[in-house]
Amino acid sequence: MAGRDSCKTRTVVHIANIDISPNTGMGRVAYHWRKAFIRKGYNFVHIGTSHAAIKINRRLFPYLALIRLCRMDQKPTIILVHEPCAGIFALFFRDVVLFSHGIERRAREISQTRITLIDRLLIPLSPIWQADMGWRFSKLQMVLNSDDRKYAMTHYRKKAHDILFYRNGVNEIIDMSKSEPKSSSYVPAVSSPVPSFRLLFLGSWLKRKGIDQIVDVSVELYNRNVAFEWVLAGTGANSETVMADFPRHLQKKVVVVPSFSLKDEASFYHCCDLFILPSIFEGQPLALLQAMANSLCCIATDSCGQADLIHHGLNGFLFKPGDYLALADLIQRLSADPTLRLSIGRNAQSSVKNRSWESIADEIVAEIEEHLTSANSQQD
């Protein structure tokens, strides 16, 4: 382990079916982990999307990554592997750390996703098998929220002290006080004497993100004569695809931004009045953290990482997943009370202070080292 390898080069291998980039969710987390490990003196090797020919079948990724790992000249000190490809590594290597951005089996149960025929017939190619084996045999498991930890303790029979509860960080806050009010390079400035009340959703346009509730609450707000406008950013899906989910008479109230650069992210928080996250399943949402850090009043579902971050009525608001009427009530209330929005936004920012990526990532590296050193000492 790290303590015994202190006199020679230590190598951490990070395995996940992603590219490391500050412009994506998982990519941003890995980007800062890499910097933290390098600061600590490690050689950091990432095996990801660009290193494996996965276009034929994404299920082959763990095995292609395994081949690449076995061909490496350096012997890894630590193997950090994403949960849905962890099993094969946990079975054959010692210091394997499984990290989860939301427990795979729990996600399927919540979304009621059926196990496919391929999962049943070709078990080693199943992400669920990889996840289950990873949870069973890895040296350390890392989760992002209290719901996942409880699930791991119940379903995988893990003890709380054996699961590392890690945190995500926030980007440096950009001072946009000199910008035009509610301006964004992607969202036109409002020239009407009665400004639109802008609702921000920042995330992929997926069912698990609660997009059905976005559509339903839009219809409800329209019927209540509540003035609003949606800014849907980072959807991945193009404008035509997203607009097709809305009734025709509401499409004029929707602005879709399929993708944007990291330097422009802050402009969305600046130009909107409320951040909405109706997800039924998350790990610890980076967009929510960043919205809170930018003093934006937030409404999110009472589950997963959202419930860990938001204390209802103090630094944000929570509603039951799927309850679009409760969401409509909160939006209607807050649209009429800018003072409350400002107060909640300030509390939100205060509650996520001291979450710089540098400090958070350094904290994670130190905790991984401590846990593995302790575990190896007990085995020896």
Structure description:
With 380 residues, the protein is an alpha/beta fold. The protein has helices at residues 25-39, 61-70, 87-92, 104-111, 117-121, 127-137, 146-155, 211-223, 239-243, 265-271, 286-293, 304-309, 324-335, 338-351, 357-379; strands at residues 10-15, 42-47, 78-82, 96-99, 140-143, 163-165, 198-202, 229-233, 254-257, 274-277, 298-301, 317-319. The strands form two sheets. Strands 2-1-3-4-5-6 form a six-stranded parallel sheet, with helices on both faces. A six-stranded parallel sheet has the order 9-8-7-10-11-12, with helices on both faces. The longest helix is centred in the last third of the chain and has 23 residues, at 357-379. The radius of gyration is 22 Å and the shape is globular. It starts with 9 loop residues before the first strand and ends with a helix. 42% of the residues are buried.
Note the main attributes of this structure.
380 residues, 12 strands, globular, disordered N terminus, 40% helix
State the helix count: 15
Q: How big is the Rg?
A: 22 Å
Largest sheet: 6 strands, parallel
* Fraction of residues in H or I helices: 40-55%
Number of strands: 12
